[in-house]
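Entry
Fold in token form

___
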Amino acid sequence: MKKLISVVLGAALILQGTASLRAGGVLETFDITGFVPSPIPGHILAKVIGIRWDPRTIPVQYQMNTTLNPIPNPLGAAFLTIAAAQADLQASLDVWNAVPTSYIDMQITGTTANAGLRGFDMRNELTFRTAATFTAIASSPSVSLIEDATFVNGDDIDGDGDSDVSSAITVAADTDNDGDIEFPAGFYKAGTILDNDVQFNTKVSNGFRFTVDPAAMDTVTRSVDLMAVAVHEFGHSFGLSHTLDNQYSATDGTGTTMFPFIDTGDPAAELSQRSIESDDVAWASYLYPEGSTATGPGALQSGDVPFASAYGLIRGDVRHGVLNQPIAGASVNATRWDGSRFVAAGFSGTTRLSFNPVNGGLFFLPNVQDAIVDGLYVIPVPKGSYAVGVEAIDGSPVTTGSISFTAQIGGFFGQLNFSEEFYNNNQEGAVEVRPGQAKNVVVHDGRTTDGIDITTTKNININNFGNLNFVGFVNSPAGRYYAVRVPASQIIAAAAPTGGEIVFHSVSYETHLVDASVPAVFAEATLATGSVSGSNALIDLSDPLGRVTGFLGQDSDFAPFYLKNGHELGKRVMRGIADGSITDLFMVLRIPTTTPFAGVSGQPPLIGLDGGVTPNDVPIAGLSYVSSDGGATFVQNTQFNFRFSLVLSEP
């Protein structure tokens, strides 16, 4: 086994607490098979690939660590027995096992008395023991091959002096009854998972009280439902990555099970995490498709549904309109054509890293052409009609480090700085008049809808704010307005490079929620004209330049309000500025007009705020206003810059 190299991949579920954050794919490792020299001298080129279980290792067999019984409760007396926890964990595994279009199968088949920490030992361990430095709620680290390997009888994979390979079996099993799993002899691809453990944090310092009864869910942020956590972690256990989407629709504020944050202060959010949704089901099925083989786990059995009879694929390429490069780490999402619900998403890019064989270190390749092979993506979806959109992994609501190597590579090269937009077929390009216009993408079962290629737009963003410092405002009265002034001088400056012409794309509002289960619905979003007098503003809400009611924001991200007829709107604004009838534009957002507000906290949707700290990264511009009297009077806010952005482009 001298050529075998493995790497530990960890994916953690993080406490969200009282503020929630905001699409699918696979956990990644790398492949150095062939030892191709890297452009960095002395290094090996490492292809970024996904991880998964080999069919010969399914069903995946787990062992329950029984050394902490009852399970520690950092908030009080211990009450949860190992037997109750094991039943809950098997129920969590069965959520994935029950997907009819996926052949993944994970079972708790035994116990272990490991009094130490989990590790690479060819035992898939479920444990409530974590290291002193462990701070997440839970994690699911895997060890996988980073080189194609042929296992022969007697090979010691984990280096413990005991054989881990047998030529007498065709399915992984504990052939010598010593507690660890032996693999069948044979060839295994890089990315094959060898060992997976799931650990749950119960330490007094930063651990959690785990409950198993839905009735025990509460608003205590250090108390969490075990199944809500375990379903997420077991998605990682067979290879699913974190996702970006945490809001399914205007009526459903919950999101994908594989979103990396959980709101432990919102019982409804916890309850939703006990089940899996369309994106989770699609990717579990894509990785382990039923009906894909004639024999073995992928062969159809009673109750199975062939993947090809239930799903089709959307494929395409994503390019950066300004950099003219294929993008690594763009999140491409598919929403029902009627706009009613998010369905699934995938990440773009085929990528490479540089591996140092001396110390095992990974490095970014210095040239984008070497690092990013293409911007291809795939999304598995049920048959139907879809609007396909693209979004950058820009830190809101999730950082590249929480997603994948591929996303980190795109971030390293400065690619993840584009605005959201929809695929609109022949109107795709660096300069687009209507980025909010979508083309109907039709998908059929068992077929691929290819060529859904997206080029991100070249925008001019007027951002009168700095870094996010706070979100607010809690306890606001129903119907409150927030507004940000854009002086005519800024519009003139933006239009100057293109001879005084400008296209209005959208207004982008950074919006937030207190309760993750609630959709970020605002009463209205408006672009209007107005004027200022001292510390007050008068905004013409009766004759807006653009307005949408029931505006759906995003959860801890910028949400676009796409403006209609942006080219004509640009001409209208420039004419008004020229004749003096327009002195200022105002980006306006109104919270719901009725109470009580939705959610266990009873708070309205919030907005992103820059300021309130000393020193602040940018000056407070004095362009932010609040109205609590129905829009009659807008009063200047001198403490914060509201994080609203006016998005423009050249004609």
About this structure: Residues 338 and 386 are 8 Å apart (CA to CA). The mean pLDDT is 94.
